[in-house]
Amino acid sequence: MILPWQQDQWQNMMQRIASNKMAHAVIYTGPEGVGKTNFAHAFVHRLFCKQPVNNQACGCCDACHLLKINHHPDLKLIAPAEGKQIINIDQIRELIEYQNLTPHSAPKKVAIIEHAEMLNINASNSLLKTLEEPPASSMLILITHYPDRLLPTIRSRCQRVEFTSPNFQQALTWLMPQVNNDESLASSLLALANNAPLKALTYAENNMIDQRNNFFKSLQALNQGKLNPVTVAASWLKQDFDIMHYCMTSWIIDMIRLKASSEPPMLANPDLKQALRKMSESIGLRGLLNYYETLNKTVEWKRSNINAQMVLEDILIQWVRISRHRNDVIT
Ligand SMILES: [Zn+2]
User: Fold this and answer.
1) Which of 85, 148, 164, 189 could form a Cys-Cys staple with 200, CB 3.0–4.6 A?
2) Nearest-angstrom CA–CA distance, 14 and 210
3) What whole-number distance in Å separates Cα of residue 31 and Cα of residue 173?
4) CA of 266 to the centre of ligand 1 (A)
5) Range of the domain at 260
6) Are residues 115 and 237 in the same domain?
7) What pTM was estimated for this model as a whole?
8) Ligand 1: distance of its center to the CA of 59 in Å?
């Protein structure tokens, strides 16, 4: 099933199936959490289905069944290996071999490459060769939030399909039933997820708002001198680093927005507006911008396996330093 905000892209793809003008390769782009992967799978279901109903897969034929159990011989999924940040040449060689086979029962042999921006240079060059001379019955779907990181020569050989976030009301209508119709929770999740509904849903499943509130309380306690950075780092370390980092970054960006305008049109944490405004009173804009840079750098430190406790302590010590000194305040 496609998502309600993907109708235009769906109609376009259906017209291409009807007129037999499907591109050999397409790139699905757009922000994280708007449903690109979901759409790719819905498209493959429709393409492979033996008896589609109203331009949707029937859900009960052989092809639909094999896709449902991830066992269809004409669909191949490629993504970075668990914990890795690259797609390597061996994966692409395997893909090329697969694409040269005749489809088993589907009209085309389809491969979906997720996080296509993680193709390394050798893999990209190898993929490029197959894009230049694609096997007749093959179709490649590349999915990425960062199309600019793909080789321009790859981009130019693919049809591009753009996905965007729905408007707030549409996102809210979709999300509400999945969070027990809690409108306030759904609104907070969407704000934090920059209106990307699937991202907001993942946040709901991870109790993101509770986790964020707990992180925020300890940050407030740190500001008030009730806790010290070492203790807070030790407690945060038991939680998910990425979520903590995301929350911290979203607070800093919101504080920068609040410095720039008394009524900023958008905040990632509208429910924390007053508390963030109060917290930012003693900090200068320059301090916040520098701190934002520091937070960005810590993602790299974390990737290079520097001791996480030390990384967190460093983040928090620097926070205490900027939030308790007014010497960099500029207005
Ligand atoms: Zn079917």
Assistant:
1) 189
2) 42
3) 19
4) 43
5) 206-324
6) no
7) 0.82
8) 5
